[in-house]
């Protein structure tokens, strides 16, 4: 079976797993998707990612690749004949890596704090998150995508957070579109690509998942 | 300022700057060093302009175009100057190198800082154990090889070696010796320091330890 050459260990609401799914879709790669039950990690997951014990893990011809941005780069280098995800010249590639790294360092914590903290701390967290988004918005500027005309690596790193915005906007009682309209316009532009729209779950479904998880954890 | 004019903005104690210097030396790329001497109170206009997002060294300038973040800089150098490659050739080998690069970048320096930045005995002990746990994984992936890449000094070695200038300070305040726990990793440090590209690029560990003593005094820990 062609699909079993490529296996993805993943968890449907994970914005990190979604990055890999988008990359695989962009390249038209068939794969075997294995949903992981995260509180109860499988033997396969623990064997394939013994250091971090996290999804996503891509298994290609039996060998594991870990960490979503590293997986996306691996996919781009291995299936290089179709839909390049990285720019071709070294300087622009360095810029793409810089912005994906910025997203990785800043967005997750800032987004989640903007919805989960309370009172003054929450207001501060919202302000910080919007500042981060404005930096990203500034980088995109008037271009259709981060690096110019082509959808690619840096876009993939950020766009998967888009389906989680509704959850934290609702919890934090604010509107990201109001503060960063160009960023939302960019996200909607990305959603016009099938690889993105078919990968990102519905925002309300993410919200329901998150609220159920919090209730189970007694939060 | 002709083609391939390379400058590197550095600060002497930064292991992230040191690793870029090692990479430049390994690839035999000539460059001019611009030293930032006062990162705590007064960052230069050039630094703030060329790295407005993080405001940190190192910053590489290639024909006046800035590239930031040390791991990103070294990857850029390997692509822009393909001779004497630092990365493995195959995509899978590169993905493993990037994995360990990410692990080293996320874990080593913060874990080390936790050892010397407190006076509380139980905090020091916990920090030391955490640091040794990280070393366990690095020793595990090094195994019996001469270098992380195999028999060739490369990307992962370069990322880690600069950080080892801070290790004697961690050993001093954590009261341990790395070679007692992971002798092969300690041997890798010695082997790497024997390379001229490393010994000429790295600040002496004595100078780093003196800096740590000074920082502890500043924070009332000595």
Helix content of chain A: 55-70%
Largest interface: A-B, 21 and 21 residues
How would you sum up the global shape of chain A? globular
The largest beta-sheet of chain B arranges its strands as 2-1-3-4
H/E series of chain B, N to C?
EHEHEEHHHHHHHHH
**Taking all residues together, what is the mean pLDDT of chain A?**
94
Low-confidence stretches of chain A: none
- Let me know the largest β-sheet of chain A: 4 strands, mixed
How far do the termini of chain B sit from each other?
Answer: 47 Å
Rg calc of chain A: 17 Å
Principal-axes geometry of chain B comes out as: globular
- Order of helical and strand elements of chain A: EHEHEEHHHHHHHHH
From the N-terminal CA to the C-terminal CA of chain A, the straight-line distance is 44 Å
Give a short overview:
The complex is a heterodimer of chains A (219) and B (222). With 219 residues, chain A is of the alpha+beta class.
Structure write-up:
The complex is a heterodimer of chains A (219) and B (222). By secondary structure, chain A is of the alpha+beta class. Chain A has helices spanning 15-26, 43-48, 68-78, 90-116, 119-140, 153-159, 162-172, 176-179, 181-191, 194-197, 203-216; strands spanning 6-10, 32-35, 57-60, 63-66. In chain A, strands 2-1-3-4 form a four-stranded mixed β-sheet, covered by helices on one side. Chain A is globular and about 50 Å long. Helix content of chain B is 56%, strand content 8%. Chain B contains eleven helices and four strands, in the order βαβαββααααααααα. Chain B has a four-stranded mixed β-sheet, covered by helices on one side. In chain B, strand 1 (6-10), helix 1 (15-26) and strand 2 (32-35) form a beta-alpha-beta unit. Chain B is globular and about 55 Å long. Chains A and B meet through strand 4, helix 3 and helix 4 of A and strand 4, helix 3 and helix 4 of B.
């Amino acid at each position: 079976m062609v699909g079993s050459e490529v296996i993805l260990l993943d968890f449907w609401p994970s914005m990190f797993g979604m990055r890999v799914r988008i990359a695989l879709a962009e390249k038209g790669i068939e794969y075997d998707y294995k949903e992981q039950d995260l509180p109860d990690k499988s033997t396969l997951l623990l064997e394939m990612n013994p250091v971090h014990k996290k999804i996503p893990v891509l298994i290609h011809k039996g060998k594991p690749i870990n960490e979503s941005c590293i997986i996306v780069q691996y996919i781009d280098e291995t299936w290089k004949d179709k839909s390049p995800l990285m720019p071709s010249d070294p300087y622009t590639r360095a810029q793409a890596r810089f912005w994906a790294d910025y997203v990785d360092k800043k967005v997750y914590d800032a987004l989640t704090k903007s919805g989960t903290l309370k009172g003054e701390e929450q207001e501060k967290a919202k302000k910080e998150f919007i500042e981060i988004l404005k930096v990203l918005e500034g980088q995109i500027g008037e271009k259709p995508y981060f690096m110019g005309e082509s959808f690619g690596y840096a876009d993939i790193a950020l766009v998967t957070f888009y389906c989680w915005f509704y959850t934290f906007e609702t919890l934090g009682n604010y509107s990201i579109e109001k503060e960063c309209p160009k960023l939302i316009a960019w996200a909607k532009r990305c959603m016009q690509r099938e690889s993105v729209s078919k990968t990102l779950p519905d925002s309300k479904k993410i919200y329901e998942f998150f609220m159920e998880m919090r209730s189970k954890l007694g939060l | 300022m002709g083609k391939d004019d390379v400058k590197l903005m550095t600060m002497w104690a930064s292991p992230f700057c040191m690793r870029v210097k090692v990479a430049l030396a390994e690839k035999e790329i000539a460059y001019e060093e611009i030293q930032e001497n006062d990162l705590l109170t007064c960052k230069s206009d050039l630094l703030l302009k060329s790295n407005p997002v993080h405001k940190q060294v190192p910053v590489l300038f290639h024909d006046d175009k800035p590239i930031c973040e040390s791991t990103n800089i070294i990857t850029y150098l390997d692509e822009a100057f393909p001779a004497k490659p630092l990365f493995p050739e195959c995509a899978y080998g590169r993905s493993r190198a990037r994995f360990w690069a990410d692990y080293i970048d996320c874990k080593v320096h913060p874990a080390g800082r936790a050892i010397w930045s407190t006076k509380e005995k139980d905090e020091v002990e916990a920090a030391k154990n955490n640091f040794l746990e990280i070393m366990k994984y690095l020793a595990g992936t090094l195994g019996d090889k001469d270098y992380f890449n195999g028999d060739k000094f490369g990307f992962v070695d370069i990322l880690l070696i600069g950080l080892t200038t801070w290790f004697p300070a961690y050993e001093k305040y954590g009261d341990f010796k790395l070679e007692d726990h992971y002798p092969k990793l300690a041997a890798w440090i010695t082997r790497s320091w024997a390379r001229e590209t490393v010994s000429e690029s790295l600040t002496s560990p004595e100078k780093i330890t003196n800096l740590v003593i000074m920082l502890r005094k500043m924070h009332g820990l000595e």
